[in-house]
Amino acid sequence: MQAPKFLELKAREEVLEVVHGALTPRLPKFVLCGVLLVLPFFLLFPLWKQGTLGIVLFFLLLLSGVILLFRQYLKWSRTVFVITDQRVVDHEQKGFFNRVVTQARYDQMDEVSYQVKGIFPTLFRYGTVRLELHGASADIVVPHVVRPSHVTDLLNDLRTSPKPNDLK
What we know:
Layout: E1 15-20, H1 27-42, H2 44-49, H3 52-78, E2 80-84, E3 87-95, E4 98-105, E5 109-115, H4 119-124, E6 126-133, E7 140-146, H5 148-160
Antiparallel strand pairs: 1-2, 2-3, 3-4, 5-6, 6-7
């Protein structure tokens, strides 16, 4: 499996799974941005009748819709949870110039669990995966994971399986 372009892997590290968040919980934001994108076209004639100010307002509304829709897409596409054979990486894109990257090795994990809570998460099969880490390290919480049971099983298998270095 291919690693995202914005993530650098260590030497001889292999990506096992790349998990994107479910689109269902983000759908209202995408719809709102889509409405903001098409709204100027519904107001085209009244705005253009106003002359230069109306035309400027039309293009400002259109540009803001494009930027907000692109921002939502960027946040969704670059917020990933990457599972490799050596570690997990939680890459959360919060805005154009704001990202939070958290990583943990499998030997740092105490427990891996998931929660599916609510009607929509149950119907659309997404939930929250939680990785509890040793000591004072902050836990890793990954929301809106599609098929969280599969991800949890994979992480538990990787966490409990013997490493090639341990067999020597």
